[in-house]
Amino acid sequence: MSKKDWFREAKYGLFIHWGIYAIPGGEWKGAPSPHGSEWIMKNMKIPYAEYKELAGQFNPQSFDPYYYVRNAKKWGMKYLTFTAKHHDGFAMYDTKVSDYNVMNTPYGKDIVKQLADACAEEGLTFCLYYSQMQDWEDPDGNGNTWDFDPAKKDFKRYFYNKCLPQVKELLTNYGKIGMIWFDTPYDMPKELCEELADTVRACQPDCLINGRIGYGLGDFREVADNTIPVLSRSDVWESPMTMNSSWGYIKRDQTSKSAADVLQNLVRIVGKGGNLLLNLGPDENGLSPKVCTDALDVAGEWLEKYGDSIFGTTNIPNFPYLLTWGDLTYSKARKTLYFHVKKYPEFPYRVLLTGLETKVKRVTLMADGSPLKYSQSYEPGRDEHRLYIFLPEVCPDADDTVVAVELEAEATAQSI
Q1: Which of helix, strand or coil describes residue 183?
Q2: From CA 232, how far away is CA 45, in angstroms rounded?
Q3: Disulfide check for 246: which of 3, 36, 80, 210 has CB 3.0–4.6 Å away?
């Protein structure tokens, strides 16, 4: 069994971006910061001497690790990834490498340990994010050019004095780590990325490394933020997405993806063979926006009913035409295509899939298991395979009506 198997089967994970940047919440001295709140120090060129004062205010009395872990499970997620240290250099755990950490705040408790313990108790795979190149607190880290002269930076000194020792701490002191999520490698020297990868594998051989370690050294591909590939992929990959406009908490943004948005992204990503890592950004008290968690509650209820169309699936074949009515997922083991109908048809209440070569065995509505009529044909003159599915007059599920199409053999798609 490959160490990637758990990840390939997981499909859906919770990302948590949280740090002292949650206190300003995307605003500094009354002015809004562009882009994400977690980049506020760099985007607004805040002097480290001022920014570090946020640590003296960090005291999230409402934070409950079990809230996040248990809700992640309720939402259908299989793993949790937490920002142990983001680009601002502040560690959310008890590090002995730097005093710039959560233990030296009014809160004074190890966030990583709390989440690691809760995940272990609840049976959720625990993963960690670590910014390996950018560090705006360290004179030798990448990114802070307003406090520290770039000409005097010695990145190797940062790498060996802070980055590598902290990664060792994280992989030594918190039990089994399912995956380590590196970020923004930029032009980090390849030999240092290789040493970092070797260190991870020496500490925890079964710990996956995401693709943003750089140079193809990771165990899977991390696609661009908030994106979905056009084509289905058979390799292992992940798409990180936000619930709103920012990874970290931002006061002025009280919007959220709807449950329908979440499900559409999940279905599209899973159908193309990937995982969705969906982010929440808690506020300074440790609470996530209710509008976001309400949407996740609804999406989780849908997954309780239709989880078989997501979990236990693999990438679909690359069918030759865009679908106007929704998306597909596919279980190779069950020889079943799942039609996810998002745009419900008008009379005569049918949807079309063009290009399926495999013979259909049976078609049922997942909501109640009732059989549906279908028509499958091949027109030799145009070399065109067509499958029509006839749906009930009344839409069973406005967010996503799922139809199970059982096949005689493995699904194959014609090319054009």
Answers
A1: coil
A2: 41
A3: 36
Answer yes or no: are the C-beta atoms of 338 and 313 closer than 8 Å. Answer: yes
- Residues with Cβ within 8 Å of 4's Cβ and at least 6 positions away in sequence, in order, are 208, 219, 220, 236
- What is the C-alpha separation between 301 and 294, in angstroms, rounded? 11
Residue type present at position 133: M
Let me know the angle formed at the C-alpha of 115 by 111 and 117, rounded to the nearest 5 degrees. 115
Identity at 397, one-letter amino acid code: D
Confidence of residue 53 (pLDDT cuts 50, 70, 90): very high
Closest CA to 281 of 293, 264, 270: 293
Asked whether 179 and 209 are in contact (CB, 8 A), the reply is: yes
CA distance between the termini of the chain: 36
In this structure, which amino acid lies at residue 311? F
- Within a 10 A sphere around the Cβ of 49, how many other Cβ atoms? 8
3-state secondary structure 278-312: EEECCCCCCCCCHHHHHHHHHHHHHHHHHHHHCCC
d(CA 404, CA 64): 39
Q: Position 192: which residue type?
A: L
The residue written with tokens 């699904």 in the block is: 411
**Closest to 218 in 3D by CA, of 194, 202, 234:** 194
- Cα distances from 101 to residues 46, 83, 113, 128, 186, in angstroms, run 19, 13, 13, 16, 25
CA–CA gap between residue 102 and residue 319 (Å, rounded)? 50
Give the residue from 332, 327, 387 showing the smallest Cα distance to 357: 387
Count Cβ atoms below 10 Å from residue 368 Cβ, excluding itself: 8
What are the tens digits of pLDDT across the range 210-226?
999 999 999 999 999 99
- How far CA 309 is from CA of 67, 222, 332, in Å, comes to 27, 23, 11
Residue 84 host element (H or E): strand 79-85
Residue type for 218, please?
G
Per-residue tokens: 366: 């997942």
Tell me if 395 sits within 8 A of 344, measured CB to CB: yes
DSSP class of residue 162?
I
Q: How far is CA 382 from CA 45, 177, 351, 389, in A?
A: 62, 53, 20, 21
At 228-285, the pLDDT tens digits run 999 999 999 999 999 999 999 999 998 999 999 999 999 999 999 999 999 999 999 9
Mean pLDDT of 370-399: 96
Q: Are strands 179-182 and 125-130 parallel, antiparallel or unpaired?
A: parallel
161 φψ region: left (φ > 0), alpha (ψ -120 to 50), beta (else): alpha
The token duo for 48 is 């480290």
